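ingest -> validate -> predict -> emit
validate: passed (alphabet ok, no gaps, 228 aa)
predict: started
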Amino acid sequence: MRWPLDERTAQAADAYPLLKDATVPSPQFQGRNASKRIWDSRVVQPSTWGTGSILSSPEAIIDQFKGGHYTQGLALVVSWGLMWRQPASIYGDRQSKTIEHIERTLRECAEQISKSQSIADSWQMLTGLQDGGLRWSAVMASKTLHFLCRALGFQQDPPVPIDTAWIRKRVWPAFCSPIPFQQRPDNWEGNTFEAYCRYMTAIRTWAGQKQWTTTQVEATLMNVFEGG
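emit:
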């Protein structure tokens, strides 16, 4: 994919690798059972869940996005990422953000990413406060774009999830604490695309060092720092 590079972050990440002792990448979280009855009210109708139970696994999310079932894919992202605790921030009041509007926005994101090989415009569509923007947090936008990009075939360096509890509160301090103050890059806080690209610069630098995908790096960081 096409990614802006933050030089200061790249230099710091290269000099201070966080995963130097990791030899094998950790698997990504495999999801949890999701109730069709609960999630059916959050998707464009008629839904196409099929029969049987639903597991919000990475593979199931990607399959939904590949099939063009964008709100079904989103419902599984919300389940996978434990984002159901704040539904209003994702789905709004059903007037400002209808299910159909969310579906159209995610479809437009997929089309834009396919053409540009970049998430820059899609990031604004998902986090933007202007009319039509979904006003999502960087956490929600990054989780959704991660799976959407993988569904579009971007496997080596897709955007990866950022979260507050682990990435911002554990990984960031561990990364920046040994760096001399005057050499520290700007942080990963907030919802701006620039802040997210600083995070992705670090992820991509460590992926290059390990010859791993960005997905593998993020999953390994989560494993290391959840257990820390």
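The chain has a mean pLDDT of 93.
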